[in-house]
Amino acid sequence: MIFPFDVALVTAFHGIVAGSSILSAVAIFCAHYLPFLTAFLSVFLILSHESRAARFIVVYGGIAVAMVVLLALQIIIGRQRPFEAVSGVKSLIGWPLGASFPSGHAMFFSALASGMYVGNKELGLLFACLALVIGVSRIAVGVHWPTDIIAGLILGWLVAGVSHTAFFQKL
Fold this sequence. Notes:
globular, mainly alpha
């Protein structure tokens, strides 16, 4: 289901960004390249930690559980992306694969932030901010609805948090 406020927000936000070459470049960078930089930064920080094996398992174990939940929800819900459903909205970053709800990027990076938070609250909050920037930029480039991002951020944090508590707390 696509909500009217999703359509209104995507149309307005995408229209502003797509109408400016500078805003488009920033949104494309944040939606397409910032995720890679964020992932590499997380790996670097984890590998530089003295208990790197345990940290790696905690952070990426939570992400793995979140990604299983993500795939199940995307298969069950199968929601169209904004560029597929709204005329005038075009993807500025190509054609992403899969369904729109919940956002895989938002869920992945929120789960990453949750895992980082377990070991270091300040780093966890930094990664949560990066997850939010990545999520908002994916609305701006026309590949997600606001509710995709909100659901991905919440579910990523919760699923990873529960998996950290249930499976990885003793590490």
